[in-house]
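Case study 2.
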Amino acid sequence: MVLLGLKIHTLPQLSRPRMVAALPDMGNVAGIGMDFLVRKLKAKLFAEIYAYWPPAVSYNEGLLKYEQSSYKFHYSPKENLVLFSGEFNPSDPRRLYELCYEVVGMAKKLKVSTLYSIGAALRQPAPTEPRLFGATSTQKNLELLKKEKLNLLAGKGQITGFNGLVLGIAKEKQLDSICILSEIDNPNIIQPKAAKFILDKLLHILQIKPLDTAELEEEEKRKQFMEQQMSYMSGLARKDNQPGIA
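Prediction:
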């Protein structure tokens, strides 16, 4: 049984490109960031890995429709950059490993110089301003992170899911890797501000001209407004807890 299906539409001709590979995580930080990069850089689709999603079939007026999603590889020739993204982060360890090996395999095929991953780091209570953290597989890049004033992940710990494991598989295959994480306080709501913080730093490291992140700032305002409304309604509920009151 073939567990993963890789379809290459065309193989881009790049010179030791960088790759950014990440999948949706807590607060969808990585999902927001990757979608933003693909759109703003007008990256071109060149390959897909067919995914186990959705785990269902849809129907409309009795007619069945089956659409299998896929993970996608894009590239930006102008920025000499490869992007890997998708709609979900596998929870099954075997499929997660297979996916990471496919991504790193593509990176090696394209002679990628460094693989970057992005994501969220949970911190409670909520930080006033999210801090950025970094980790890397080489001493050379450790110095780069310090120069960029990223907080190094201190002590011992784990970076779980695709956004962490792909870095380990890259190291196993002797491919330099760097991870950039932004603090969040709630993993259950989208975190556009955290994604913006990461993108600003990532683009600076990659020496890519800053992108207009106004849409992420507007999304953050909408999120804060909704949080305020929810807090207000919650406060009303606590004040009037009489049964039967509508």
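The chain has one domain: 5-57+66-211.
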